[in-house]
Amino acid sequence: MKIGTVEIKNRVFLAPMAGITDMPFRLLCAEQGAGLVYSEMISAKGIHYNNENTKALLQIDPAERPCGLQLFGSEPAVLGAIAQRLTADPSKINFDLIDINMGCPAPKIVKNGEDVYETVDNDILLEEVFETFLELFEESIEQED
């Protein structure tokens, strides 16, 4: 199975879970056969503002790959800028794909209005997120066709 250019060895995925899917847990799940593991949900704003706790969440061990990085946030420009920054230097990329959280029920995320789908103008915001990513990554998306 493949997602883009990422080869996935089986259909057992470890979902991104805040406070659960830290590196030791991901490594354990990968050792036990998970085909793809995900980071905890990571705040695009946290990366943008160089938050030290957020930086720690970005650490990925090569033994847990393939590993997805899940970003959350409600500002398309910030999400796009962070995704672009994280993928700008291929030699520094330690994850295999980026996942945008679109429907997290975690109270902290919903309460702060950081859930893309749960915002008041969710259709407009979703469209802005997709347009931002298509514009920023159009060339790499076209290479996948």
Keyphrases for this structure?
alpha/beta, 6 helices, two-stranded antiparallel ribbon, 145 residues, TIM Barrel
Task: Give a written overview of the molecule.
The protein is of the alpha/beta class. The protein has one domain: TIM Barrel (Alpha-Beta Barrel). The chain contains six helices and six strands, in the order E-E-E-H-E-H-H-E-H-E-H-H. A four-stranded parallel beta sheet has the order 3-4-5-6. The chain has a two-stranded antiparallel ribbon with strand order 1-2. Strand 5, helix 4 and strand 6 form a beta-alpha-beta unit. Helix 4 runs parallel beside helix 6. It is globular, with a radius of gyration of 15 Å.
Give the structure's gist in a few sentences.
With 145 residues, this protein is α/β, with parallel strands linked by helices. It has six helices and six strands; from the N terminus they run E-E-E-H-E-H-H-E-H-E-H-H. The protein has helices at 23-31, 44-48, 52-57, 76-87, 107-111, 122-144; strands at 2-3, 6-7, 13-14, 36-43, 67-72, 97-100.
